[in-house]
């Protein structure tokens, strides 16, 4: 029997309740109105307006180039489509690492100008002051540990993080700190499954995984990846639920052929 409970609007309180009753949390990225409306209608719990828009929407190699203004534009588009899902927005690189005042200003802009329900930040103890100030302003925060793509040039690779004892221990300490500070949830990216399970069991807040195994409280994927729109990205943790890239290619190819052959539009499609 399904544990899914019908919710009119997902909130931080309901996400916590989902963890407590053992109901897994579903989360996908969204960047535009049309896609967000489909995802929300399908019953997704959380929509992440990810800085992965830098990759899948703008074609950049990393998430670093996307700006705060661009993130707000994407977030506002998503919020306008959503009636049920909780919408959380990535704070982009450079919008919060400098100092806590800048972090607070950036978070306030996201909330005021997009209508989103919360923000997501990458990092632990090193951004403690910024997290504290944002939370003090009443803005919900989702944390993000493990592989943090905004730090890709520090890591030098997108390989699995926290395989060594020292890094694993710091991740656990940072996760506990984020909960103590008041974050409502945490994303763990590309870390060993056993470590993710340990963190999820030790925290009372929901832990969402991407490449972190099945023993966490929910899962998140980039929607373009799971729908097969981006076809060159094939990490081990990704399951494709459709091959929309192939379907779209076939549709456009047929359209081109129909236009060239003058079979589109036909008499019924003309005024």
UniProtKB/TrEMBL annotation:
Binding site for Mg(2+): 51, 90, 122
EC numbers, comma separated: 2.1.2.11
Catalytic reactions of this protein: (6R)-5,10-methylene-5,6,7,8-tetrahydrofolate + 3-methyl-2-oxobutanoate + H2O = 2-dehydropantoate + (6S)-5,6,7,8-tetrahydrofolate
Cell compartments where the protein resides: Cytoplasm
Enzyme class: transferase
GO cellular component: cytoplasm
Keywords: Cytoplasm, Magnesium, Metal-binding, Methyltransferase, Pantothenate biosynthesis, Transferase
CDD domains membership: KPHMT-like (cd06557)
Binding site for 3-methyl-2-oxobutanoate: 51-52, 90, 120
Cofactor(s) of this protein: Mg(2+)
Record bears the keyword Transferase: yes
Metabolic or biological pathway: Cofactor biosynthesis; (R)-pantothenate biosynthesis; (R)-pantoate from 3-methyl-2-oxobutanoate: step 1/2
Comment on bound cofactor: Binds 1 Mg(2+) ion per subunit.
A Gene Ontology BP annotation from the UniProt entry: pantothenate biosynthetic process
Any one GO molecular function term: magnesium ion binding
Catalytic-site annotation from UniProt: 189
Family: Belongs to the PanB family.
NCBIfam families: panB, PRK00311.1
Function description: Catalyzes the reversible reaction in which hydroxymethyl group from 5,10-methylenetetrahydrofolate is transferred onto alpha-ketoisovalerate to form ketopantoate.
Subunit structure: Homodecamer; pentamer of dimers.
Protein's name according to its UniProt entry: 3-methyl-2-oxobutanoate hydroxymethyltransferase
Organism in which the protein naturally occurs: Hymenobacter gummosus
Gene symbol of the encoding locus: panB
């Amino acid at each position: 029997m399904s544990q899914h409970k019908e919710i009119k609007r997902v909130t931080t309180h309901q996400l916590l309740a989902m963890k407590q009753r053992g109901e897994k949390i579903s989360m996908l990225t969204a960047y535009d109105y049309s896609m967000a409306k489909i995802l929300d209608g399908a019953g997704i719990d959380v929509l992440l307006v990810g800085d992965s828009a830098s990759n899948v929407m703008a074609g950049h190699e990393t998430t670093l180039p996307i700006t705060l203004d661009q993130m707000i534009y994407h977030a506002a588009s998503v919020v306008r489509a959503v009636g049920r899902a909780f919408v959380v927005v990535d704070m982009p690189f450079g919008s919060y690492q400098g100092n806590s005042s800048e972090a607070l200003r950036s978070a306030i802009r996201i909330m005021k100008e997009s209508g989103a329900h919360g923000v997501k930040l990458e990092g632990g103890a090193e951004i403690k002051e910024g997290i504290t100030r944002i939370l003090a302003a009443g803005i919900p925060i989702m944390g993000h540990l493990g592989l943090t793509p905004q730090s890709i040039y520090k890591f030098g690779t997108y390989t699995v993080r926290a395989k060594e004892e020292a890094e694993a221990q710091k991740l656990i300490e940072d996760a506990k700190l984020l909960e103590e500070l008041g974050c409502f949830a945490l994303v763990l990216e590309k870390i060993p499954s056993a470590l993710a399970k340990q963190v999820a069991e030790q925290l009372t807040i929901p832990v969402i995984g991407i490449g972190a195994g099945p023993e966490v409280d929910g899962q998140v994927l980039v929607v373009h990846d799971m729908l097969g729109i981006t076809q060159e990205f094939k990490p081990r943790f990704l399951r494709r639920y459709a091959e929309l890239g192939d379907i779209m290619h076939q549709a456009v190819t047929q359209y081109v052929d129909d236009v060239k052959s003058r079979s589109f539009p036909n008499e019924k499609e003309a005024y």
